[in-house]
Design goal:
Strand content: 25-35%
CATH class of the largest domain: Alpha Beta
Number of domains: 2
Number of strands: 9
Oligomer: single chain
Distance between the termini: 32 Å
């Protein structure tokens, strides 16, 4: 029986956790999963993280493949994640188009996003929409997607969070008093792809490749789709 460790981006938490459990049950192995933001994944891999499988956006995968930290040819496409709008359960917020989204942000008491990939995109988007200066005093940047939802749940209904839809669904399912108000309008939506790959230099190399591939099967795609990853 092998003991495998998966280091994964948080946006695909629901699907990765379930696929890890399914793989462990089917193969009789132990699979441990830890989640972090993309910047944290980069730091941990650079520091020689003790992991067998990595789940991350392609840009980071390509960087790590070039430096020999992931096994060439082991990368498997898992799915795509989109950014959504989250508000307090008691709040109303409709933003089906760019102009209504801008109005909602302008009226918000707080605008919350994280320091990961989606947050980097939101910083640029607010500047592109001409809202960065007006919203500067109301912007709160937190470390993780879960922290976005927690902030929105604990503050006034006037707070608006911007997070990966998959992460919003996880926290709603856990009973947090928040509401998914819808995705970012298509014209300004940001899509992040996620892949799984075997980490180089591990003793269970064959099993790690197998687990990465297992997460990209047609059956796995259905699991990810149910968590908001298409």
């Amino acid at each position: 029986m092998a003991k495998l460790k998966v280091l994964s981006a948080g946006a695909v938490k629901g699907g990765v956790a379930q696929m890890a459990d399914d793989y462990a049950r089917e193969h009789g192995d132990t699979v441990e999963v830890e989640f972090a933001t993309a910047p944290q994944l980069r730091k941990r891999m650079a520091a020689g993280e003790d992991a067998d499988v990595l789940v991350a956006p392609p840009a980071l995968m390509e960087e790590l493949e070039k430096t020999g930290k992931v096994v060439p040819g082991s990368r498997s496409f898992l799915g795509r994640s989109r950014i959504g709008i989250v508000v307090h359960a008691e709040a109303t917020c409709e933003a089906p188009d760019v102009e209504s989204f801008k109005r909602a942000l302008s009226a918000a008491d707080a605008v919350v996003y994280n320091s990961a990939s989606s947050g980097i995109y939101m910083t640029k988007l607010l500047a592109d929409l001409g809202l960065a200066q007006a919203l500067e005093s109301r912007i709160t940047v937190v470390d993780t997607g879960a922290a976005i939802m927690k902030y929105v749940a604990e503050h006034t209904p006037g707070a608006i969070g911007l997070a990966q839809i998959s992460e919003i669904r996880v926290l709603i399912a856990k009973g947090l008093p928040i509401r998914f108000a819808g995705p970012l309008p298509d014209a300004i939506q940001n899509v992040t792809r996620y892949e799984a790959a075997a980490v180089a230099g591990r003793s269970e190399a064959a099993k790690a490749k197998g687990l990465a591939a297992y997460m990209a099967t047609p059956e796995a795609k259905k699991v990810f789709a149910a968590t908001g990853i298409d």
